[in-house]
Amino acid sequence: MLNGFRLQDLKNAPFPPPGPFPLDMPLPDNRKTLQISMFTAKNGRGLGQMLFELSALFGISKQLGRVPTINRGGGVWNTVTNAVTQHFPVFGLMFEMTDIEDSAAINVNLNIRFCCKFEDPRNLKSIEQQHLLLNGVYFQSFKYFHDFQSEIRMALTPPPDSALRAELMLPADFRDDFIICVHTKRPMIQDSGLSKPSDPIFTRRATDFLVSKYKTPSKRVTVVIFGNDPIWSQNLFHGEAKLYNTYFDSALLTLGLSAIDDVAFSRNFCDSILLTAPTSSFGWWLGYLAKDTAEIYFRDPKEAPDQLYAEMRQIDYYPNSWNKLRSSRFDKKMKESYNFE
């Protein structure tokens, strides 16, 4: 007997054979990771600003050979899910959720002083520590991720239900028209105040200019207005039409569409896009995610200076293929002049 057991019973017991026992434990994860501070998610900023930070996280990670991660703590992962990745699930798959403590990562400053000036992340390639955390804000430069534009555009393809709502918004009779999409922005209570709103005179005069540029005897032009204030847009393009030369054949408002639906409309229908609030981050993404053949115009931000303009290097913020639209200062009776840079 051995501690109450017979030796024969022990010999016949179904024990595993001698040798190393298999352990159901994950292997150590030695991959190098990258996080950013996710300022926009922590501070309740809008979709456009969050897309900039997330796309920069992806692009910088690819350049440094690291895994892009988002910390679960502090509600950041949930915020990103609710605001972004539930609408763009493929985009969400580009990131891994982690529980890495900030103290376990080496902290490095990048893009910490200015919203919209590019700082080359390749200077961080020599860092050997496993976990890297970038202390920075906004990351509003396409140069952080433009090398991976095709991947990002694919991952940010709007969901089918948004594409359907966008299609229903445009009647079949207008599908063959040249579609000019005008993004407008009006002040809202929850705005950060960093970006100036659209100016009504510039918005209408610039729209009329683009319509006259693209309209031909055989080509109808329809204007579609995106914006957060449909009453303002309605008054500007219909109620005050007598104050302006009206060149377009039809003007439609995207009433009832969400921001994601606006992206879907831009991706599928906009032949040209006019950004009348030039530092609006959401307007920027409407242009960046538009269909490949779309021509993008933006107001010269020097004409509408704001805090973002003060922190901006324009060659880092606007892609070279976009068109800067300038206007001379004018009153309602003065003819406007336009030129491109």
UniProtKB/TrEMBL annotation:
InterPro entries: Alpha-1-2_FucT
Name of protein: Uncharacterized protein
Organism: Caenorhabditis remanei (Caenorhabditis vulgaris)
